[in-house]
C-alpha cells in the first residue's frame, strides 16, 4: 500500500497502483499551495531551490519513490514518480526537478549498477534530501557527440584520478556529488567510457559561474573543472566497456525529461481552457470562435499523444531498462509538443499571454530548455531511425 499522509510524514511507503490517483492529488495540492506562490519569484530572481524545501520533499517520501525500499525509498513503479514530477512541474519546475533528479536521474544508475557499499553510502542521503547527485556528461566539445568526451578517470592503485571539464551541468555548483562520465583507458569511442562518483568538496573540483539561461532559472547550471581530483576506487560505478548500460539507464532520465515537457504542455492547455471560456471578444466568449476551437483541439491532440507515448515507454521499466526506441519517441514528441502548445497558448491569450503576469512566457521559456537537455529532438530522430532500422549511423563521416 502507498501511505498518503498530508501535512507531514511519508507519502510513499510501498506499491499500490490503485492509489496512484491519490498520490497525484497530494502532489497537485502540494504544488498549488506550497510552491506555486513562490515559483515566479524563484524564476525572476534566479533563486536555487532552497535546501530546506528539498529536505521537506524528502520527509514526504517524494525523493525516493522509485528507489529501493531497503535504503529508505518507496520501491514503487517509475510511473508513480513521473506522476509526482508532472504535478509539481505544472506549477514549479525547480520543485519538480528535485523529484526528477532523485528518481529518474543518476541515482538510478547507482541503484541499478552500483555496489552495495555505494547503495548504502549514497542513496539514503539522496532519498532523505540531505544530499544530491547530479550527472556530468557533456563537455565543451562533446555535447550530442557524447563519445567524443575527453575527461579522464585513470586508476592509480586504490584511487582514481579525474582530469577534464564538463559543460551544461544541471545543478552544477549546487549538487553534493557528481556522477562523472569519463574515459578510463585508451580504447577508442565508447569502449573507454565509464562512470565515477566525485564529491563536490574534493580538492581540485571547481565550478564556473552560474549560467544565465533563458529558462531553467531556478535550476542552477554551471561548468565543472577537475584538476587531478583523487577519489577512492570504490567510487567507480561502472568501468569501461559498459557505455550501453550507462545510456540505457540514462533513458530513465529522458522519461523524466519528457514528463517535464508534458507538464508544461498540460499546464498551458489547462490555463488556456479556462481563459477562452472567460474572455469575451466581439460580444461572446473566445471559445465560440471556430479558429479557437481548432487550436484547442490541436493542443489537446498533441498533449495526449505525448502522454500516451510516455506511458508506453514507462510501463516496461522495472528491473529492466526502458526500450530506447520507445523513450526516444516519447521524448522527441513531448519536447516538441511543449514548445508548440505553450506557443499556441500565448497566442490564444493575446497580449496577456506575452506578459509575465499570466505565466505562459515562463512555461514557453522552460519548454526550450527541456528540449535541449538530455538529447535534442534532432538527435532523438537519429536514434529513432537507428533503432527502427537496427543499424547505426556514423555522423563523423
UniProtKB/TrEMBL annotation:
It comes from the Bacteria. Residues 18-130 form the Acyl-CoA dehydrogenase/oxidase N-terminal domain. Residues 134-229 form the Acyl-CoA oxidase/dehydrogenase middle domain. Residues 248-388 form the Acyl-CoA dehydrogenase/oxidase C-terminal domain. Belongs to the acyl-CoA dehydrogenase family. The keyword tRNA-binding does not apply. GO terms for biological process: butyrate catabolic process; fatty acid beta-oxidation using acyl-CoA dehydrogenase. Its cofactor is FAD. PROSITE patterns: ACYL_COA_DH_2 (PS00073). This is Acyl-CoA dehydrogenase. One of its GO terms (molecular function) is flavin adenine dinucleotide binding. The keyword ATP-binding does not apply. InterPro entries: Acyl-CoA_DH_CS, Acyl-CoA_Oxase/DH_mid-dom, Acyl-CoA_Oxase/DH_mid-dom_sf, AcylCo_DH-like_C, AcylCo_DH/oxidase_C, AcylCoA_DH/ox_N, AcylCoA_DH/ox_N_sf, AcylCoA_DH/oxidase_NM_dom_sf. Keywords: FAD, Flavoprotein, Oxidoreductase.
